[in-house]
Amino acid sequence: MEQLRPPVVTILGHVDHGKTTLLDFIRKTSVAAKEHGGITQAIGAYQARVQGTGDSGQKEKKSSLQPETSNLITFIDTPGHAAFEKMRSRGAEACDIAVLVVAVEDGVMPQTVEAIKHIQSAGIPMIVAVNKVDLPGVDVKVQLEKIKKQLSDQKVLVEEYGGDVPIVPISAKTGQGVEDLLETINLVAEIHEFKGNPELLALGVIIESRVDKFKGAIATVLVRDGTLKKGDNLMVGGVKGKVRGMFDFAGRAVDLAGPSMPVEVLGFESVPPVGAKLHLARTVARRAERSIVTLAKSEKINVNAQIYINRLSDWLFTLARYVNKLDNIKEVVWKGRSTSK
User: Fold this and answer.
1) Pairing, β 216-225 against β 262-268
2) Per the database record, which ranges form the Tr-type G domain (predicted)?
3) First and final C-alpha spacing in the chain
4) What is the pLDDT of residues 50-72, one digit of tens each?
5) How is the chain split into domains, by residue range?
6) Distance (Å, rounded) from C-alpha 146 to C-alpha 10?
7) How confident is the model over 275-290, as pLDDT tens digits?
């Protein structure tokens, strides 16, 4: 059954405009990090929980997310544009929302324009975070108006200009406005209603991979839909494997990873390529078909069994084709939900 899932967010922007500082601040101060002892592992992604408004005496908003995923946001913590484009070029729409970081004193710069093009091409919602508003000697109000005009020149219309792109002034260094940014992300997620079905076989994407001298080939997998389980057999980007172990962003061993959850996976025979798509339904169908072909060659089965085996093999072949089509359809639907809202 489909249910709302945490949004998956990437942060892009010009070099030195504060992407890393913002990610680090959120990681260190988020409720999710505190729940895990304040320690996060460098696995390429992490989750932050937005603090509810109940502590301030206001009524908390109701959410149809499960309690363990309520107010969670998944951040992809990878090296900016290159990783984003690499995943997108492989047809892996890994992100739901992009936060564009713009330094208040510099405004829109060449890499900012590049990031805007990547986001527009991916067809996902954008939020602009104007960073470094704590800098002395900067007229923030004047610079904000300048940045809004620069953004409009790139066909990015903020809400004040009649568009649908929120703009949030922040200081990633002091934390000013960061809570407002997280709340804005949640609001955008509520509007777009990103959903997943944990009862399905896992559908995901490799967001980083490497060889560890102790663990062997490992990869950070972002589960987009379904549930990845310990013991699942894998075939990702031509690389075989079996989930021997999974660890969340806090380094804790887990047996299950549901929609929007990033996990470090052990058990690959070699390093899978970044951006490769994980699709357990396709893997299961292919493994079953190979088993049936092997059985069909056996001389120990009778004619009736051979007929049934042939029929089952044809059915599995058809299933694999439909799985491929479904994979493509789901990506179109994900993108459509982002562009139609």
Assistant:
1) antiparallel
2) 4-199
3) 23
4) 765 433 333 344 444 454 556 89
5) 3-196, 203-280, 281-340
6) 25
7) 888 888 666 656 565 6
Nearest in space to 326 (alpha carbons), one of 236, 224, 221: 224
| Cα gap 127→168, rounded to integer Å | 8
Domain spanning 203-280, CATH architecture: Beta Barrel (2.40)
Confidence of residue 201 (pLDDT cuts 50, 70, 90): confident
pTM of the complete model: 0.78
Query: CATH top-level class for 3-196?
Result: alpha beta
